[in-house]
Amino acid sequence: MSQTLSLHEVSTRGVEWFARLESTLTHDFSLRDYVAIDVVSGEYAVARSTSQAMRTLHRLHPNAQLFLRRIGDEPEPELAARLFDAETGRDK
């Protein structure tokens, strides 16, 4: 099993993987879709929601550390807030 990465490291690696995959993702999928990327292997799953993409990838790789984002340019601030709150232990 791989080492558990910090939220910062998951984010950094996820952004790097997304940059490598972006042209394929934007060509092959809707800009409204979401991608979950395993930040260690670069494997990914695409779905209509973050939860669907995450579940699909976790079925294949249960211990994967995932980076989630919309394929298009629209930010997903609620997802970032949920991840930040989970990392800091804050409850809404």
Descriptive report:
The protein has 92 residues and is of the alpha+beta class. The chain has one domain (7-87). It has three helices and three strands. The N and C termini lie far apart (32 Å).
Q: How much of the sequence is in beta strands?
A: 15-25%
Identify the strand order in the major beta sheet.
2-1-3
What is the chains' assembly state? single chain
Topology as H/E string?
HEEHEH
Structural Rg: 13 Å
The total beta strand count reads 3
Number of separate structural domains = 1
Unreliable stretches: none
Reported for the largest beta sheet, the result is: 3 strands, antiparallel
Mean pLDDT: 85
- The best one-word shape is globular
Terminal CA distance reads 32 Å
- Counting H and I runs of at least 4 residues, what is the number of helices? 3
